[in-house]
């Protein structure tokens, strides 16, 4: 396979594959359990994709070593996105009505702000 053709094929396929996995990750509901199951599925899929691309690669050793580094970078990016989503979900939790009543707002009208 021609080197130039392989690099174009690899770049386009990699962008599509990583983009699809990333978009699926962004659509997950916030929660630690979902992320870990997603990692158990996505990482072996990505590694199998890299192995299949390294089979047709002109330089297998170099491609496989750079691909292993890319797996580590992608995992780090996913963890940062997970942390940001997790922090954002913690801020959006409204207080319950029992907490509002305990704060001194004895009726629902006062809790809602209606006087």
UniProtKB/TrEMBL annotation:
Domain of life: Eukaryota
Keywords: Membrane, Transmembrane, Transmembrane helix
Transmembrane portions of the chain: 12-30, 37-56, 62-84
Record protein name field: Uncharacterized protein
Species annotation: Brassica oleracea
């Amino acid at each position: 396979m021609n080197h130039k053709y392989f690099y174009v094929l690899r770049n386009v396929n990699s962008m599509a594959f990583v983009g699809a996995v990333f978009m699926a990750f962004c659509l997950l509901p916030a929660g630690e359990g979902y992320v870990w199951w997603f990692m158990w599925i996505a990482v072996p899929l990505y590694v199998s994709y890299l192995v299949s691309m390294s089979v047709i690669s002109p330089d297998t050793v170099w491609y496989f070593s750079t691909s292993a580094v890319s797996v580590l970078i992608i995992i780090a990016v996913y963890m940062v996105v997970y942390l940001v989503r997790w922090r954002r979900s913690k801020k959006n939790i409204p207080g319950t009505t029992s907490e509002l009543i305990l704060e001194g707002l004895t009726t629902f009208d006062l809790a809602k702000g209606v006087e």
